[in-house]
Here is the input.
Amino acid sequence: MSYSDDYRDEKELVNIIIGLTFPRAGFPHPFYDLDYEVKALEQSFVNKKGNTVKPDLIIASQRGFLIIFEAKSGKNAEEEQLKNYADIENRDLINNVGFQNIYLEKGFDISYLCYQDTYVEDERIGAYDNLIKSIKGNYNFAVLKYDKDNSFLSLELNEFNDEKINLLTKSIIKIPKNRIPHFINFDQHSTVKELIPAAVQNIISYILEDKLEFTLEELTNDLLSPYPGIENLIGSETKRAVKNKLKRVMRKLKDKKPEYFSWKNEQKYWKIDDNLTEPNYNQLNALRNLISDKANTAEGQMSIFDN
Here is the structure.
């Protein structure tokens, strides 16, 4: 068994924090109870020295607190990134991101989020120990650690400005790891291979809803998050990166099933063939087979998953 993927998923770390900030049954939401809201996801902005930063997540409370999160799945924090975060000022968040003063009255925090351990080819690596080497004694960034084996999140290094968050995270937050919500499904690092199954499933949903025309923007937003409104918080760079990969996905699907899909260049949308209105079993099965590429790939023929 390989543990690498399960313990190196930065999206999982971000989804945990979003989950703690949303009122959702079956998952704790103490950040929501402290009046925090998700304000931005992977949105780039410029700091006081003109350098670009792109945090994974920003949450804020009208009590006057704001937290910028950077998730790390096992890598050290690069010195350049650390310096760029240290060079953020209130006015950068106001002028370059659009935050109101009310969210910054008591300052803001930079917080790194990581696993306790990760795995490389089944070898256990101390992800937290690696991360703090470059932070401890050099920066006052709060570090939250997710112990996946024991299912809890805790504050392990430095503190937040918000004493209520400190009390909450120092006493650990139990995380039901089998119920972590998937607020964010994909990001700019997601591959075409990862996007294909989700795209096919979403297209099948369109067909079953009698929606036979869709834009790449619609498909992008639907795949990024199943939760309405979340897509509006995601930065334009991430959306553009996912959209560009979905262009390749749709070309692959069209090449595989040209009778099913056509691109309407003048109107800039994809058209699903009218014969798929009220699709029969064989048609749906042919679409589903695209996910696993079982649709009779001839010998020597490129797989849909090939680049």
The longest strand covers residues 65-72.
